[in-house]
Specification:
Layout lengths: L1 H17 L10 H8 L1 E7 L3 E15 L2 E5 L8 E2 L6 E2 L4 E4 L9 H23 L5 H25 E3 L4 E6 L12 E6 L3 E8 L1 H4 L7 E6 L2 E10 L10 E8 L10 E18 L4 E3 L2 E8 L2 E12 L3 E6 L6 E5 L10 E3 L2
Parallel strand pairs: 1-20
Antiparallel strand pairs: 1-19, 2-10, 2-14, 3-9, 4-6, 5-8, 6-7, 8-9, 10-13, 11-12, 11-14, 12-13, 14-18, 15-16, 16-17, 17-18
Length: 341
């Protein structure tokens, strides 16, 4: 109803501009229309360039993300960083008790210390010529095994940052129970941003690595490119997974925010483009109105690319056609029209 009111107001404005002459004030709109034609505005069709853009909402993560994974079923002893902190690769982020039975850290540590002392003694004896190289090699093997066992146990109770970056999520707190395979935290590299989302298969066919993309968060924008297009559908969403990478570029955009990502899927020059409101849809077909010899003529068109606001016309219009842009709602085939500047 609101659309009808707006269209009526526009048409009344056109009629007032066209029919405000003296002597016509007593005539009805229908009489004026019959005598002088329905007032319309027009443009001459010309060729233009056109880019098809599609918009998706996606979370901005780091250029590469990595996770700290629990290998134990135990209570978290400590959390040593908070979300937003910059962390270094190897830095301890979450720790578990050294007495955790499944980690066997104390036994591994005791075994390592004993093996290290034995190796150091045998190494000194070898330097003095008291033992053979084979004897030293045997002790060294035991030492290296004990060291590997201790390091493995240490990694179980001290979960470290897998890479340097920003701690973007933390899933546990001290005193909470963890379980093997649980994601404890996420670290995002700070070299840039990455967005992941799914697109319809039809769209994916027109995407390739290097396709231009823009991410907008409030008044900030990042320029990037498609970095990955999957070759298979996601079985849950039935969409094709796509990744888009954005250099940091000095912009202070927080990791984890939702951005509007625009993909420029196709671009062409020398094409005819019309606005959505200039197209009339009837029975699954699309039409536009043309001005020909003072009358309105409805012309069927076929469209190609679109960005939901503008449509490429691939047949039905030619450069030089006079396209009616306003006053369309009141038109019927072969109606008399009056072009208003």
């Amino acid at each position: 109803m609101k659309k009808v009111v707006i269209i009526t107001i526009i048409c009344l404005g056109l009629f007032m501009g066209a029919c405000g002459k003296k002597g016509q004030q007593g005539k009805s709109m229908e009489q004026i229309q019959k005598e002088e034609g329905i007032p319309v505005r027009v443009v001459t069709v010309t060729e233009d360039s056109f880019s098809e853009e599609l918009t998706y909402n996606a979370v901005l993560g780091g250029s590469s993300d990595s996770y700290g994974i629990s290998m134990l079923a135990d209570v978290v002893a400590g959390v040593h960083a908070k979300v937003g902190d910059r962390v270094s690769a190897g830095q301890v982020i979450v720790s578990f008790p050294k007495t955790t039975p499944s980690a066997q850290f104390e036994q591994a540590s005791t075994g390592y210390n004993a093996a290290r002392q034995a190796y150091e003694r045998m190494k000194k004896l070898h330097e003095e010529g008291a033992i053979s190289q084979q004897d030293l090699d045997n002790v060294e093997t035991q030492y290296l095994l004990a060291k590997a066992n201790m390091e493995s146990s240490r990694k179980m109770i001290n979960v470290t940052a897998p890479l340097s970056g920003v701690l973007t999520s933390m899933a546990v707190a001290p005193g909470e129970m963890s379980y093997p395979g649980q994601i404890l935290f996420q670290v995002s590299a700070t070299a840039g941003y990455k967005a992941k989302f799914n697109v319809p298969d039809k769209v994916a066919r027109n995407l390739k690595v290097g396709t231009a993309a823009t991410a907008t968060v409030g008044d900030l924008s990042l320029e990037g490119k498609v970095s990955k297009v999957s070759l298979a559908l996601d079985p849950q969403t039935q969409g094709v997974p796509v990744e888009v990478s954005f250099p940091a570029g000095g912009q202070r955009v927080s990791y984890g925010v939702t951005a509007r990502v625009k993909l420029q899927t196709q671009s062409r020059s020398g094409v005819i483009v019309v606005n959505r409101e200039q197209i009339v849809s009837e029975n699954g077909k699309k039409f536009v109105w043309l001005a020909q010899k003072g009358h309105a003529v409805k012309r069927e068109i076929e469209t190609g690319m679109d960005n939901q606001v503008r449509f490429e016309v691939i047949s039905g219009l030619e450069p030089g056609d006079i396209l009616i842009t306003e006053g369309i709602a009141l038109l019927s085939e072969n109606d008399l029209i009056k072009v208003i500047e």
